[in-house]
Every structure is written in structure tokens, then in C-alpha cells.
Backbone:
């Protein structure tokens, strides 16, 4: 069951991602399809053995929509998250965790199967893990920044990080004669 739900959630998320991009006037790409597939995998991970195949397709569909909207949200464009890790893995995981609390089958009933207990535990865990992760990462970033500055100077950015930080470039620099 876990194999089937994992496969279908990933496929549903991939298709949802590329169709949602197309509907919103964005270019459909292989990279977008791969990102969608990963979002589906992330979202189904907590529920792979506890939901049916049709429910796993719903997981992929919802996670792809939510993550795609976060990736393309204008108010988040100023955040330095080059690979959209939070939008894909963070939001996809949060979506999967909440949907697991709603749909999961098993000895502990989820929200759709008559139990508020699992839903409450999932939301509590989500809040606690989010707080712990935010402050833990913040402390680690501050310590790392004291040891090795994480931000380069504006001059280095203008010059280009390959040249300013690594003293190399993709294209040979022509020397003036």
C-alpha cells in the first residue's frame, strides 16, 4: 500500500504542478515536473501506509497547489531561498502532516474517521516543531555568522561570487593588450 500511495501522490503532484503552471501562464518545464513530483513525495511521507490510493492522489494534488502558490507568492520573493526549499519541502511536509491527521486510517482515528485526538496531536506537534526549528536555526545562523560571515559585501556581489569568493570564472576574462 505504501508503494502505491507514494507513487500515485508523486504522479498526481507532478501533473497538478505542470497544469497549474500552465493555467497561470507560466512555462511548463521538466524542472517544474520534477519539483511537483518531489512535493508529492514529501506530502505523502507521513501517511503512505495509512491512506488509500485515491486519498494519496488528493494529498499530491493539494500539496502541489499549496506549494506552487508559495513558490510563486510575491510577498516571499525577497527571502533568500534559492532552491525554494521551504516552499517545497516545508510547506509540502506541513500539508502532508495536516492531511494525515484528517484522512489516516488505523487504530487511532483521524478527523474524518471520528477522532479529534490525532488531529490535535498533529497540530500541537506542528506548532512545537516549527518553534523549535525556527529558534534552533536562528541560533545556529548567529553562531555561524560570528565564525564565518554568511553575507558577502556588496562589492563582491557586483563582481560576482565565482570571482570574488573562489577566484575563478566560467568564461575566461579577456586581458586588455
Residues:
Amino acid at each position: 500500500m505504501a508503494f502505491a500511495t507514494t507513487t500515485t501522490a508523486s504522479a498526481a503532484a507532478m501533473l497538478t504542478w505542470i497544469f497549474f503552471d500552465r493555467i497561470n501562464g507560466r512555462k511548463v518545464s521538466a524542472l517544474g515536473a520534477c519539483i511537483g513530483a518531489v512535493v508529492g513525495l514529501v506530502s505523502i511521507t507521513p501517511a503512505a501506509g495509512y491512506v488509500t490510493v485515491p486519498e494519496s492522489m488528493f494529498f499530491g494534488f493539494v500539496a502541489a497547489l499549496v506549494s506552487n502558490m508559495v513558490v510563486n507568492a510575491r510577498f516571499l520573493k525577497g527571502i533568500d531561498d534559492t532552491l525554494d526549499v521551504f516552499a517545497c519541502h516545508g510547506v509540502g511536509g506541513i500539508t502532508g502532516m495536516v492531511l494525515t491527521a484528517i484522512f489516516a486510517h488505523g487504530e487511532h482515528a483521524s478527523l474524518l474517521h471520528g477522532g479529534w485526538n490525532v488531529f490535535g496531536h498533529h497540530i500541537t506537534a506542528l506548532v512545537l516543531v516549527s518553534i523549535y526549528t525556527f529558534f534552533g536555526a536562528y541560533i545556529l545562523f548567529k553562531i555561524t555568522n560570528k565564525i564565518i560571515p554568511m553575507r558577502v559585501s556588496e562589492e563582491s556581489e557586483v563582481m560576482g561570487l565565482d570571482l570574488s569568493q573562489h577566484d575563478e570564472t566560467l568564461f575566461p576574462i579577456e586581458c586588455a593588450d
Notes: The mean pLDDT is 90.
